[in-house]
Amino acid sequence: MFNIAHLYPKQLNLYGDTGNILVIQNVLKLYGIDYTTYKVGIGEKLPINTDFIMVGGGPDYLQEKIYDDFLGRRDFLENYFNNKKPSLFVCGSFQLLGNYYLDSTGKKLPGIGLFNFYTKSPNNQKSRIVGNICIQSSIASSDFSNKVVGFENHNGRTYIKNIKPFGKTSSISYGNNTVNFTEGFIYHKTIGTYLHGPLLVKNPHLLKYLLSDYVDIDLRRKDFISQLIPHLNALELKR
Amino acid sequence: MLKIILLPISLFFIFAKFIKVKILNWGVGETFVGYVLLKVKFIDFTKLYLASLPSNYIIITGTNGKTSTTALLNHILTSQSYRVLTNKSGSNLERGVLSALVLNLTNYFFKNPDFVVLEVDEASVSKIVSKLTKKTLNLSVIVLNLSRDQLDRYGEVDLLAKNIQGSLRQFPKYLIYSKKSKYSKFFIKPKIVGKQENIKLINKLKLTDKNLISNLDFVTAVLQDLKININNSLVTDFVPVKGRGRVFLLNNVSYTINLTKNPASFNTNLRNISTAKDRNILVYVNDNIPDGRDVSWFYDINYILIKKIFEKNNVFVCGSRGFDFYNFLNLIEVSNFNFNSFENAQKYFEKTDSHDVTVLSNYSATQDLVKFFNRNV
C-alpha cells in the first residue's frame, strides 16, 4: 500500500496543487499499485508509513495559521527527508521549510528551519514574479527532456545557502529571486519549489524521478504518452 | 463650472466614437475613449470627471456576477425614475469607467444623476476610489464574492480584500456590503448581507438565474440603507446582460454561451446543467491576456461534479489551452470526450442527436465565439 499524505489541503492549496496528487494516483493505478490518500489537516496525524508528502502554497495569513502545527512535525519531517523519501513543497510551504520569511510589511514569520535559506518580500505587490517558467534541472534529465516547466507567481525572494538548487533559471524567468538564477532546492528526494502548474502534471519525468524507489515508470508506455504532451506544449509557452 | 470645461472633451469623443463605430465600423468603441485619455499623463481625467459628479456612489465588485448585478441595480433604480450614471458595457477597468463618464456627460450636463453606479474590477477598486476627491460622499461598496481568479493578474485573494478595505480609509462615511465568507474578516465592520428572499420582487423582475437571485440580496440591502422604497408595481422584467447566456443558432445547432473563467464560475455553470443528459458541451479555453496565462485553476474545479456531468453528455474541448484541459479530464478519468479545433467541434455537434450546445468559455474564447457567430449567423 502506497500512502500519499496531502498536508494542509484546506489552507495551502492555492494553485491547483491537488493536480499533483491526481497524477500520482493515476500512475500508481496504471502500474497496479494500491494506494491511500490522506488529507492531513491541523492536529491530524501523518500516516506512520508515509510514502509521499505533498504540501502546496497559500496566502501569508494561512501560512501563519498552520505554522505551529507544521513546527510540531519538524522531527518527523527531518527523519522523513533523511530517509530519502519523496516529497514536494510548493511556494508557501517551501518558504516555511527555511529559517524565516519577512513579509512585505516587514513582519518576520519564523520558518521551521530545516534548511538554510530565508525569504524576503519587497514592499510592493507590483514587483510580483509572475509567468511561465522553464528551468534546467539535472535530477529530472531523461531521454525525454532535461527541462522542468511550470508557472511561478510569488512576491517572496528566497536566498538559499549551502544547499543544492532544484534548477537553474534563464534570463527571462526568475525562480528563487531576481539575482542569482536559481530555482528552489533539492535535498535527497525532497523538493522545494516556486513552480506550480501543477508541477507533476506538466513534468512526468520529475514524477518518474520522485517515485523511482516504488515504480519504474516507462515514459514511452502507450497509455502514458498523453501525459508528455502538456510538458512539450509548456516548453513553447510565452512568459 | 467643471462640467463646462469638460463638455468640449466629451463632445469631441462622442463624435469620435460615432465616426469609429458607425462610419469606420471599427468595433463597439466601449473603452477606446478611456484608453486614449489615460495616455495623457499630465491630466487625471478620471479624477476630473468624478469630481464633476454628485455624491451618491455605489461600487459593485467581486470575482463573479458584477456585470449582471450592476445591470439589475440600474434596472431597479431607473424603474423607480431615478437618474443613474453607469458603465453598463461591462468594461470595468479604469478605461471603461472613464469612457462611461466621458460619453455620458451630455446626459447629465443640466441635471445631475441621483446615483453613480459603477461596476469595478476587484483589482481596480482602490485605484478608482483613490480618484474620488469629495471625501464627504455617500459611498457603498458591494463585494459580491472573492475567489481565486487569474492569480497571475490579481495575486492572492486576501491581498485584494485588504487593498479594497485600505483604499476606503480616506472616507469618513462608507459601507462595505459582503456575504459571510472567509474574506469578510478583512473588512472593517462590513454589513453582512443575509438571505432576503424578496419573492415579490423576484417575480416582478422574472429572475430565474439562482446567482442573480442571490445577488439581489445585495441590491435590496443597499436600497434599504439608502432609504429607497421600491414600488413593485413600477418594476418590469429584467433582461439578462447581452453576451452572458447569449444564444446563437447556426446550421440548426443552438449554442448557449456561458462565461466560465475560474473554478467558481465553472462549478456554478456545471450545477446549472447538473440534470442534463445527452446534451452537447463545448469547453473552449484560451490563455490570452484577458484570461491570464496560468491554467492551474482547472485543478480547482470540483472533480466529482465535472466527472458526473461530463460522463453523461457529449463533451468537446478546444482552445489554445484545450490540451491542458484534455489532460485534466484524462487524469480525473472522464471517458469518452473529444479534443480538436472549434471547426471540428461544429461538425461534430451538427451530427449529434441533440442540437443544443452548452458552451463553457473563458474571456477571450467568449470574445472569439461572439465575433464568429456575429459574422456567420
Quick synopsis:
Chain A has 239 residues and is an alpha/beta fold. Chain A has seven helices and 14 strands. Chain A has a six-stranded mixed sheet with strand order 2-1-3-4-14-13. A four-stranded mixed sheet of chain A has the order 6-5-7-10, with no helix packed on it.
Main beta-sheet strand count, sense and barrel state of chain B: 6 strands, parallel
Biggest sheet of chain A: strands side by side, in what order?
2-1-3-4-14-13
- Helix count of chain B, per DSSP? 15
The shape of chain A is globular
What is the mean pLDDT of chain A? 90
Major protein interface: A-B, 33 and 26 residues
Summarize the biggest pleated sheet of chain A. 6 strands, mixed
Note the run of SSEs of chain A as H and E: EHEEHHEHEEEEEEEEEEHHH
Rounded Rg of chain B: 22 Å
How many DSSP-defined strands of chain A? 14
Strand content of chain A: 25-35%
**Span of the ends, CA to CA of chain A:** 40 Å
Taken as a percent bin, the fraction of beta residues of chain B is: 15-25%
Query: What is the structural class of chain A?
Result: alpha/beta
Structural class of chain B: alpha/beta
Distance between the terminal alpha carbons of chain B, to the nearest Å? Answer: 49 Å
The shape of chain B, in one word, is globular
Q: How would you describe the oligomerization state of the chains in this entry? A: heterodimer
Features:
heterodimer, A: 239 residues, alpha/beta, 6-stranded mixed sheet, 4-stranded mixed sheet, 26% strand, B: 377 residues
